[in-house]
Amino acid sequence: MRVWTIILVALCSFYASADQTSSMSLLDNRFRVDPSIKQINFVIYRAKPSKPVVLVRPDGEKYYVSNHPSNVSWYQESSMDIISIDNPMPGPWQAIGKITPKNNIVLISHLKLSTDRLPYRLYQGELLKFNARLTADGEPLVLRDFLNRVKLKVTFTKFIENEEAVVSGKKPSPEVIGEFADNGKGLDEVAGDGVFTVELPITSAPGKYRAQITSGNGVFMRAQEQEVLVYPTPVQATFIQSHDEEQPNQVVVSGEEGIIEPGSLAGTIEHITPYDDVTTVQGSADPD
């Protein structure tokens, strides 16, 4: 077997030394991991199709896609492996597998996930624009092969006091609210700029939740978490049917006093007949 040349992504601790770009270096087909590194990600390109690589630790222990410790996350495709390791052993590592022409090495340091802050008070039925950013050394991360596979998502999990004491089968399951995209579509403004955007529809039942922003495939697990409260919608719509052929039906929209700013309500109603004819009516509240 021949030793691989790989793309190496180093996820460095926020508290690591200032010059992380020299923390790893290529030496005789080995990648030397400095003791200051708290997490690393290997992005490994291999011949298509081929088997996943074998990672060899400095002490000779081997990691396989089907057999590795709990501090290792492994995502694989027919021609790529992305391997995340928490608290890697310092020293020279090897990746063994079929070599490819992609013989370049990229070292990314000070990788950081930052997100907008959700409002503490949310309302059923509202729609939010929410952004997340991956940066390296303070600059947007644009390594597409890595970003396209991170699959950041937002989940809501019902809040429980002392959740650690609850048996695993009784713990609430997270509900996926939305997935981020950096493709210039929908609410995302610019494709490939390192800013990920998600449209969040608040459909969860009223209550307290843990909101998490995390990776959908385990490659990048630096989750962001905050607590939020979901309240019932403060807007009510009432349909009033007319019993007089000369008078139209009505839809009355009202807002909860003290929550909705007077004059801020606007609405759009679509009426579809049995013959698929569509009538659209729009209206807004008076400022008074």
From TrEMBL:
Keyword terms of this UniProt record: Signal
Keyword Signal: yes
Leader sequence residues: 1-18
Zinc among keywords: no
NCBIfam families linked: choice_anch_X, TIGR03503 family protein
UniProt-recorded name of the protein: TIGR03503 family protein
